[in-house]
Write a structure and sequence with these properties.
Order of helices and strands: EEEHEEHEHHHEHEHEE
Number of strands: 10
Helix content: 25-40%
Bound molecules: adenosine-5'-triphosphate, magnesium ion
Number of helices: 7
Strand order of the largest sheet: 6-7-8-3-9-10
Structural class: alpha/beta
CATH superfamily: P-loop containing nucleotide triphosphate hydrolases
Number of domains: 1
Radius of gyration: 17 Å
Largest sheet: 6 strands, mixed
CATH class: Alpha Beta
CATH architecture: 3-Layer(aba) Sandwich
Strand content: 25-35%
Shape: globular
Distance between the termini: 29 Å
Length: 229
Amino acid sequence: MSDIAIKDLIKVYKMGKIEVIALRGLDATFVGGKVTWIRGPSGCGKSTLLNLVGGLDRPTAGSVEVDGVNLSQLSDGDLVAYRRDKVGFVFQFFNLVPVLTAEENVDLPMRLAGTPAKERAKRTKELLEIVGLSKRAAQRPDELSGGEQQRVAIAVALSNDPGILLADEPTGELDSENGKLVMALLKAASRDQGKTVLLVTHDPNANHIADATIEMADGRIVPPSGEAT
Ligand SMILES: Nc1ncnc2c1ncn2[C@@H]1O[C@H](COP(=O)(O)OP(=O)(O)OP(=O)(O)O)[C@@H](O)[C@H]1O
Ligand SMILES: [Mg+2]
């Protein structure tokens, strides 16, 4: 299980002479093995926060510590390894490799991590079973429904058995039935596999799976408004 401690996190995007302050001193702790629902209005910095926790980008100041390691102190190479081994990403637009089948997509991160073929095959089978897609293993993304693609994407995110699962609007493109299925899989990942799940969504169904909820506004955490956004 992975614990995440965030201290005074600041992110400024510079575009020529214009500066956008996306995070302005954010503090938070995410407890290992729980689902935390992160909500807040468009532009408040939710995706920026997930990108920094996922090591996709580096903070301007402040720190993200995962299991006691400050990500800012990792070299570029170590940050790549962190992203590959410790974090699974689930995005709004399923992010699968279009020319690969479902099982090849699930296999790919393990291949990049140097996992032996036999182990990869076993794990791919298990993961496709968990997401209920064993029968779709040989199909490419364009031969799958949106809901099925997102379930494959969850299997991909779990393939290297990361401690952290980051989901940014994972149900944004799905109908409510498929949205509920995806939420249930995220919940199962935390409950059955101890993943630390950060879930950014406007979908009120998050309420049913969240162990904790934090609300953001203008680059910080604010007290809950009690109103879904
Ligand atoms: N790469 C970038 N370059 C410049 N500005 C950016 C960049 N990414 C985000 N921003 C700005 O930073 C602020 C926070 O953006 P962010 O994407 O984190 O918001 P969000 O809460 O995820 O919004 P949404 O709910 O619409 O997805 C916004 O003002 C946005 O315009
Ligand atoms: Mg966003």
